[in-house]
Amino acid sequence: MDDTPIFKCWVCHEVIANPTWDLSRNVQKFGTDIWEGKARETINTLLSQQMFVYDSQECWHLHEPAVASELKLKTTYPPSSPFTPCCRCGTAVDRSLPHVSYAITAMNLQEAPDGWLGEVIDSKEFAVLCRDCEEPDEPAAEAVAEYENQTERTSA
Ligand SMILES: [Zn+2]
Ligand SMILES: [Zn+2]
């Protein structure tokens, strides 16, 4: 069985070559650990779910307004401070607790002996949502359904 993944751009339907641009929904929390004697901030990703993939930043930018309206975002690209206003309702999100974050990441995928290796070359947080807007462990039902449809189409 050939299990080489073939990704097609959500927007232009081209087969994607490196780098891949991917929009993921993550459940994450900020923490600190000690590294070389100093406290540093860490981001702990508890769950990550890929929603859409693109072959270029241009295609992501074309799709971006639709994603923002689907997620009912008032603001995008939040600051990565310990308290961040929810991009939908403006409530402060305490980043030390699990919260939902959408991020766009550019990655070079490489075949490795035990699977696929992704080297992140660019990553930006697109939106942060408070617990009232999106529960940290429930998937965003509509968006995931759309993504599943697309997976079926591209693997056919
Ligand atoms: Zn494209
Ligand atoms: Zn909110």
Q: How would you characterize the overall build of this protein?
A:
This protein is an alpha+beta fold. The chain has one domain. The chain is about 20% helix and about 45% strand. It is built from two helices and six strands. It has a four-stranded antiparallel β-sheet. Strands 3-4 form a two-stranded antiparallel sheet. The longest helix is centred in the last third of the chain and has 15 residues, at about 140-155. It is globular and about 40 Å long.
Major β-sheet annotation: 4 strands, antiparallel
Overall SS class:
alpha+beta
Q: What is the arithmetic mean of pLDDT?
A: 87
What is the chains' assembly state? single chain
- What ligand species are in this complex? zinc ion
What is the global morphology? Answer: globular
| Domain unit count | 1
The percent of residues in helical segments reads 10-25%
Give the number of DSSP strands: 6
From N to C, what is the helix and strand string? EEHEEEEH
Summarize it.
The chain is α+β, with helices and mostly antiparallel strands. It contains two helices and six strands, in the order ββαββββα. The strands form two sheets. It has a four-stranded antiparallel sheet with strand order 2-1-5-6. A two-stranded antiparallel ribbon has the order 3-4.
Protein traits:
single chain; 156 residues; alpha+beta; 4-stranded antiparallel β-sheet; two-stranded antiparallel ribbon; 6 strands; binds zinc ion
